[in-house]
């Protein structure tokens, strides 16, 4: 895949007016080109079609995107990782963790949890990594651990799920952090669509934050 050409095409599609609104939405934390999601994905699509046939993930492209100042490039890197998740394995988790902990905000962090989940599905050893991430000194890394099974449905490892959540409830290091409470509620809400009795039992058993309970109980 010609990553440099993809970057050039995205830069050529920049829209100053869009960029102002997008930057404001993200609380002026990041610069933007002004390329909205549908256009970004349309530009990336032919490049990713080629990338899926590559023998390995192009981490130099990912690093280049993460280093660029405009936020769309981090989105493209996360999109790319989703497209080549079949090429990723246990050894790639430390690199993904570096992305999680760099230029961190909910948008890029939440764009990476499915990729992490794909790795966990393929390699049971990655479950131990998730347990370690659940106690990490960076709460965004903990958020990934909490949400990596978000779309597993009936394949959810409930023992692992509970262990991770308990490490992040009120009274733990980041138990009062909004983005942690929200992540726990979000993950429980999604799993309640598959196993509402398990979620109800979890809420009865543990002292979850009010925000978490509100989110988790939506479909109960």
From TrEMBL:
Gene3D superfamilies named among the record's database cross-references: ARM repeat domains, Hypothetical protein (EF3068)
Record-linked PANTHER family: ARMADILLO-TYPE FOLD (PTHR34070), DNA ALKYLATION REPAIR PROTEIN (PTHR34070:SF1)
Descriptive protein name: DNA alkylation repair protein
